[in-house]
Design brief:
With 334 residues, the chain is an alpha+beta fold. The chain has three domains: 4-82, no CATH class; 89-149, no CATH class; 154-315, no CATH class. It has helices at 68-86, 102-115, 117-125, 131-152, 159-168, 229-246, 252-258, 279-290, 300-317; strands spanning 4-6, 12-14, 17-22, 25-35, 40-50, 60-66, 177-180, 185-187, 190-191, 194-198, 203-208, 267-270, 295-298. Strands 1, 2, 3, 4, 5 and 6 form a six-stranded antiparallel β-sheet that branches. A five-stranded mixed β-sheet has the order 7-10-11-12-13. Strands 8-9 form a two-stranded antiparallel sheet. Residues 94-99 and 319-327 have low confidence and may be disordered.
Length: 334
Amino acid sequence: MSEIKQSKKGILHTQSKRLSTKKGVYADAWIYGVPHSDSIEVSLKLGRYKYPKELETAEPKSELTLTNNELDALIEYIAEYYKPLSLDTRKFFSYDEDDKDLGKLLLKFKNVAENNEEIAKALLENNFFTDDIQTAITAIKKEKALIKFETELNNDNNEVFWQKWFNANKWILGSEYLKILEERKIDTNNIADFLVQAFDGFVDIVEIKKTDLPFWANSKDHKNLIPSTDLIKAITQCQNYLYEIEREVNDIKTFERLKTRIIKPRCLLVFGKSNGWDDEKREAYRILNSSYVNLTILTYDHLLERAKNVMSKIGNDNKTNRNIQTIDYDDLPF
């Protein structure tokens, strides 16, 4: 470990670091700290000096001292930009007119990933790519997620599985949600699957159930389709959650936990499947949803179709000279 020295005035400092030596001049750096009652203010001093004078008596050709805040900003700046620049991406990408095609750029990136996965991950982690390429990468990630989602709909997954899956793929729940809150507890007796921050900044609730639960009852009532017992239970649970969370609207401790305000919360209930529904069931579903002001019921198939429509729109918006459909997504390291 480097030795830290202390001057007679109590200032902590390191041994100077020779940064460069050129004809007639040299550059040195020091890190030093000024102790305070409860902290140490760290600064960086940079100097360029003329030979042959000793360091202590040398007259600086130029000198700069960075304060604690400036040093922190410099460290953050170096951490963000040094690595992507030092990778010298010219070794991996040659830019030409063809690179306006995102498909070709991503194929080049795929080749990098196949030959040097560490470099490929570093390029991703350090945001090397332009906005267009980042958009394409995001679209590919979402397409892969949709494929996984559609596959898992045929499996008998429990609610815990879907909680984890939606937590990793929040976007599929809808663009009206900015983020999933870390806190799930409404009060001591009620814990929702997700408490979310809506786009307007307030708390909403997302409750999910299993895919294999029946949506409609086996028999009709007065020739009308009616919700299954399981769906009625889920709706009742959601309404109870909404009632309980509204009771917390003025509770300071709840606000401190959620760090998001509660005003007229809404709930999204994800329940069962709807593939294979006929017109009668689709109409009954429309009528059922219209009867609730602060509750929306979606099946897993509804989520899937809505997400596919969103992805289709993204694809149409980017279709000009941006063919990304020929790539084997499984080979990309994201």
